[in-house]
Write a structure and sequence with these properties.
alpha/beta, Rossmann fold, 3 domains, 21 strands, globular
Length: about 475
């Protein structure tokens, strides 16, 4: 499918859907968004969903709006975004009868710069498709990303216009519902967490700290004007570079996971600008130090598992192998397919998200009958109950959380021999013969749970980090979950 300059779009109509959950600081942005929509080179219809109270999820708002649409196409635009004047026309010029979605890459901007973001905007979808497959109303973020992933799983690809960047998205601090809502406080904070790159790993710690401390989590670039006693930098990325160079009386900590060990940012971070640099695994620390030299203030503290959220069930073993997470080259997608074909007596169940479209095509067209693709699960404790094994086919890992969570539920680990995998001891395989021996070996769910409890219990991890802070008044905090 390509650009068709001769396409007759006079009879093709589009309804643009905007959720008004306006920024408290910039209510005028909503009108700027609407003006850009009404100023298109082709006629469009407009539906504005009132969510100024921010009491409805994006999915619920979108589903309500789609039911009111009487045009062929629905175009979703954020209330803090605006469109180039020819945006709808360019989208229409790339439609065809077989593709339910046309989109393009976003151009993110703020007062200082414009830059293209390497992910598509929600874009323009056929109304009939949206009615057949409604948006997930339970998600508070990532709704459009999940919708794309589910479409690909159904073998319904979307078309991305790679040369056009006419959808502009503001980068700011007070985001719509469904994104991180952030307002910078004027009062001094006890801990300021900068976590541009995701908050999943820091959220459990922040929740604990918030019991008796003022804690601010910022999922945006480092904001140097915030007053605080401690700056915690999650991820060794551009924020770590800024924080390491930042001169302040606040104590500074950096936690480095795995992917950062393979990025050029390593060579720009001022490591001695932090009181402690925390690695989640010894082999990741070793790789980084081999590149940048010895880091005297480095320690190794793994990411912990909240055992209170995972249940060890009494069940009989079966032939079902689970996999949860990204389905990508890095995670060994090709090996998963090969293993499923080589072990026809076992069922491979993947609850995951495709990262690369060609991998999605590969699975949709060539997967064997014993390989099953499930929607990504946000309740792994419930999902794991039906399986005996958890497989990890990654090319590299740091501290694979999903594997540990499955072990906490009593699943037997099957771990590829990536660098550092020796922490799993006898559960590591180097070839298919060793994997078969693991599958044929005994099933000891209590043993797998004990492995996590002894080495990756969140309560123990919390205490190790607490020691780094050396703040005596924090030691009275009671564990939120009791170990079972």
């Amino acid at each position: 499918m390509g650009y068709d300059n001769n396409k007759d779009i006079s009879m093709q109509t589009v309804t643009v859907i905007v959720i008004d959950s306006r920024s408290k600081e910039h209510p005028d942005w909503v009108q700027a968004c609407i003006d850009s929509i009404l100023n298109q080179t082709v006629e469009v219809k407009l539906i504005v969903v009132d969510n100024t109270k921010r009491d409805k999820t994006i999915g619920k708002c979108w589903n309500e709006a789609v039911k009111q649409v009487d045009t062929e196409w629905c175009f979703f635009v954020g209330d803090d975004c605006f469109l180039a004047r020819d945006c709808v026309q360019v989208m229409l010029n790339h439609t065809d009868k077989n593709t339910p979605c046309v989109t393009t890459f976003m151009t993110m901007f703020d007062e200082k710069e414009y830059r293209v973001v390497q992910r598509p905007c929600t874009g323009m979808w056929k109304r009939e498709y949206l009615l057949k497959y409604p948006f997930n109303e339970t998600l508070v973020k990532g709704i459009d990303r999940e919708y794309f992933e589910e479409a690909v799983k159904r073998n319904d690809p979307y078309y991305v216009i790679s040369y056009y960047f006419g959808h502009y998205d503001r980068r700011h601090d007070d985001h719509r519902s469904g994104r991180v809502k952030l307002e910078y406080p004027k009062e001094k904070q006890d801990i300021y967490i900068t976590s541009e790159g995701g908050t999943n790993f820091i959220d459990p710690l922040a929740k604990r700290w918030k019991e008796n401390k003022k804690v601010l989590i910022n999922a945006q670039p480092f904001h140097p004007e915030i007053k605080t006693d401690i700056i915690w930098c999650e991820w060794a990325n551009e924020n770590a570079i800024a924080v390491g160079d930042f001169k302040t009386d606040a104590r500074k900590f950096l936690r480095l996971h795995a992917y950062e060990a393979f990025t050029p940012q390593l060579f720009r971070i001022k490591w001695n600008g932090f009181e402690k640099v925390i690695f989640i695994a010894e082999h990741i620390k070793g790789r980084v130090e081999a590149l940048v030299g010895k880091i005297p203030n480095a320690v190794v503290i793994p990411v912990g598992i909240d055992l209170g959220k995972f249940t060890l069930r009494d069940k009989k073993p079966n032939n079902k192998i689970a996999y949860a997470g990204q389905i990508s080259r890095k995670k060994g997608a090709g090996e998963l397919m090969l293993l499923a074909k080589s072990l026809p007596d076992y069922e491979f169940h993947l609850a995951g998200k495709y990262i690369e479209d060609d991998v999605a095509d590969y699975f949709n067209k060539g997967k064997p009958d014993n390989l099953f693709i499930h929607p990504y699960s946000y309740n792994l404790n419930e999902w794991f109950k039906d399986y005996t094994y958890i497989i990890n086919t990654s090319m590299r890992e740091g501290n694979p959380i999903t594997t540990l969570e499955a072990m906490a539920c009593g699943l037997k680990p099957l771990v590829r021999d990536w660098l550092g995998s020796e922490i799993y001891g006898e559960y590591v395989y180097k070839n298919i013969e060793e994997l078969k021996k693991l599958l044929e070996g005994s099933y000891e769910p209590e043993e797998y749970r004990s492995f996590v409890e002894d080495n990756y219990n969140f309560e123990k991890v919390y205490k190790e980090i607490e020691k780094l802070f050396e703040v005596e008044e924090w030691r009275h905090l009671e564990p939120e979950h009791k170990t079972i």
